[in-house]
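DUF6969 domain-containing protein
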Amino acid sequence: MNQIEAAQTVIETITAMAQEQKPLMLRVVPEDNVTFWSHYPPKDARDADCQSRWYYHVHAAGSRDKDEHGHFHLFLHRTQLPEGLEPKVWPPQGEEAKAHVTHLIGLSIDTVGIPRAWFTVNRYVTNEFLYPADVMIEHLPAFNVDKTKEDGLVNRFVTAMVALYREEIAELLRQRDAKHAELIAEHGEKAYEKESGVEVLSQIPIDLDEKISSLEMA
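Structure:
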């Protein structure tokens, strides 16, 4: 999917959600009694073909920005990377880790269902197999969640957002690695863990109108 196709898909899916009067978050979480910190869906949304995945969750009030409803965590599965490629940092459980995934990016959603920011997180947040930025950037086109069992509009929207913002995501991944280097100098092996005291490593705001206007749409 190129940028123009991605922009068209983002517009189509957001428009369809508005026409159905059902915003993005209500396609993912229950309208009432949302459980803070829980994964929605409980076992994550997994693409049937490539195993890319996403989950959405909502932080408790006071631990999120006031205009954020919740956010997506987006992942590649290790099988989408070259066979035998060693992670830069392993989860504490090693090969016994529950999910053999690497965190691609986080996508923050505002209170009306519009994307508001991209961000990267420290390794411990998602207990990922951490790979260097250059590996992740090379495999950004592999991310696809069109064929999960969840809402089709949400799936297509998420896939298209990554395709639309590949350049920005690449830069955030580079900034993530640069921040890790700073944390290693300060905390050593604890740089990737909760003891570092750092959860979000890089972040940029999203202005969809500006982004789409910058493209030469037919």
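Strands lie at 40-46, 53-57, 68-77, 101-110, 115-121, 200-205.
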